[in-house]
Amino acid sequence: MKIGLHDVTKRFDRVTAVDRVSLEIADGELFTLLGPSGCGKTTLLRMIAGFVAVDAGEIRFDDRRVERLPPYARNIGMVFQNYALWPHMTVRGNVTYGLRVRKLPAAEISRRLAEGLQKVNLTGLEGRYPGQLSGGQQQRVALARALVLNPDILLLDEPLSSLDAKIRVQVRAEMRGLQRELGITAIYVTHDQEEALSLSDRVAVMREGRVQQVATPKVLYERPANRFVADFVGTNNFIPGVMSARVDGRAVVETALGSVRARPSDVAPGGACVLAVRPENVALGAAGDNVVEGRVRLAAYLGNTLRYDVETASGLVLKVDVGDPWRHEVLPAGRSVSVAFAAAATLVLRDE
Fold first, then answer.
1. In the chain, where do the E strands start and end?
2. For residue 208, is it left (φ>0), alpha (ψ between -120 and 50) or beta?
3. What would the 3-class secondary structure string for 137-168 be?
4. Of 51, 105, 172, 318, which residue is the least packed, with the fewest Cβ within 10 Å?
């Protein structure tokens, strides 16, 4: 089912939590709302669900307007951050609660229960209570409870935030596989950019109630629309500068590091800008379009990566990632080094 949002707005007293948001979500798409706490993503999700009233704008499921309909008339399935399981009910009781409210026949309830538990790998645990389950199992119960209703749309509000890192990766992979298998349209809310990139067909990055960019994970990471997106999604080095010229199809920007070549840009000559280059695209002791001298200030071992902070003569610190750190002898603080990065890896953003 397609979802269309047109100038959707929500205010709480003098605070505009969601400000004229318009989105088109395709049938069968897993679409993620990503942003920091307080950006409006959960409020927007709850408006789609019908739990929060819309002050202005339209919400459409296919061609049907739903913004004035109650939640039960929208045929959505909702998975909450805190699972929202009844502690005094077994897995069977929790999963079938909505079916019993709808007064479905007992045989149909049993059939849907068996199918739902099989989808989330909980077959055989029908008689357990939530307190007897792990966090990952509780989240699967919450997912099964939503799916047995045969919803047209699945809404997930930070459903993995209470799980530890390893279980979170496992459950999100299972969730993504199930969503693809079912072909159900899903909207996923998270503040975790790694989660958003790994799960989503497309991502909307939100800030202060407004959408900053909608794109596939690859485009979002490689071509962020502004500094906020570039800073929120992954790690970037930011280098302030002024656009100087365009030479051989590349931008030339004057910075505290000297003249830096970057990707083409529509920033006019003389315009203030910020260069963004990711640490994995900066190399130690290599040749390149842009070479900068500096000293090692800090080396941090991150497991699959060694990250250096290299302080340049201007005082600007560049983060440099070294892959396969077991092949690399760690350089001590104070060591003089040169770092290089390609023009193709350097993005020009307008100064905000």
1. 3-12, 15-25, 30-34, 56-61, 64-65, 76-79, 153-157, 185-190, 202-207, 210-215, 237-247, 250-255, 258-262, 272-277, 282-284, 290-301, 305-312, 317-323, 336-341, 347-350
2. left
3. HHHHHHHHHHHCCCCCEEEEECCCCCCCHHHH
4. 105
Q: What is the pLDDT of residues 116-130, one digit of tens each?
A: 999 999 999 999 999
Of 246 and 317, the structure prediction assigns the larger pLDDT to 317
Q: How far apart are CA 322 and CA 284, in angstroms?
A: 8
Tokens found for residue 49: 């669900």
Measured CA distances, 117 to 160, 178, 228 (Å): 19, 12, 41
The H or E element spanning position 135 is helix 135-147
Q: What tens digit of pLDDT does each residue of 56-68 get?
A: 999 999 999 999 9
In what side-by-side order are the strands of the sheet with 64-65? 15-25, 3-12, 56-61, 64-65
Which of helix, strand or coil describes residue 20?
strand
Do the beta carbons of residue 248 and residue 236 sit within 8 Å?
no
pLDDT at residue 40, as a whole number: 96
- φ/ψ region of 85 (left if φ > 0, alpha if ψ in -120 to 50, else beta) reads beta
Contacts 24+ apart (CB under 8 A), 328-335: 330/299, 330/301, 330/306, 331/284, 331/296, 331/299, 332/296, 333/296, 333/297, 333/298, 333/299, 334/295, 334/296, 335/295, 335/296
**Short-list 226, 232, 314, 271, CA closest to 33:** 232
| CB neighbour list of residue 338: distance below 8 Å, 6 or more residues apart | 284, 285, 286, 291, 292, 293, 294
**Type of residue found at 43:** T
Size (the chain), residues: 352
Tokens of 164: 């530890």
**Which alpha helices (DSSP H) does 19-89 contain, by range?**
41-49
Q: Are 94 and 60 in contact (CB under 8 A)?
A: no
Q: CA torsion angle for 218, 338, 238, 346 (degrees, to 10)?
A: -40
Distance between CA atoms of 27 and 19, rounded to whole angstroms? 24
